[in-house]
Amino acid sequence: MQFYQSNYANSYQPQGGNISGSGLGAMDNSFGANIDVSGVMGNGELTPGLLAAFGTGGYPGEPPLLEELGINFQHIKDKTRAVLNPLKHDIDPEIMNDSDLAGPILFVLLFGTLLLLSGKVQFGYIYGVGVCGTVGLHYLFKFMSNDVQIDLVRSTSVIGYCLLPLVLISVLGVVISLDNMLGYLLSAFAVLWCTYSASGFFVAVLKLHNARPLVAYPLCMFYTVFAFMVIFVEKADVKVQQS
Known about the structure:
The chain has helices at residues 21-32, 50-53, 65-68, 73-84, 93-96, 102-117, 123-144, 152-161, 164-175, 181-206, 212-231. It has eleven helices and no strands.
């Protein structure tokens, strides 16, 4: 058997065949000049040092941490404005495609807290009705639309954001009693507001422009249950026996 010597190592040697120490040092310095302390190739995209390790700096063009976690305050503000102004027809499609749940979770927690301040412990009912109602409405609208499909997260986002008018009514429930004619009228107005906003969102997403009453009917029933939580209070009859 014959063995052939490879010339791979010789291709990196200078023409004289010897590698000097200065040549190695120059090569090391030229290689290390492109790498900074943070380990980034290039001209120092990240600032090295101990303070930079605990800072908020990042790569150029990198989105913020809250946005990577799905919390976009600009989208929350735009979607809240769209709910508060249901008569607006030109809804931004980017807002409609956003599956943000930070706003709905905030509104639901605020709704339950305001009910608690008014003497109504309804967190279990809010969770049960919210989960069952959202899942039922999602699959109902999904079966109604054949052209456009929507996922459960987007449906939950739309339904949760449109709960905002009832949250505003629950603020009044902390101050005054809503178990009267004024409370009934305000709650009915809030339910219609929620229904109109949510139906507008779903009609725009699912392109069901000729079926808006069919979309609004189950949404109205859903928000009416939350309105009952705002209005009525569980009253316990206490019987005192006199001996």
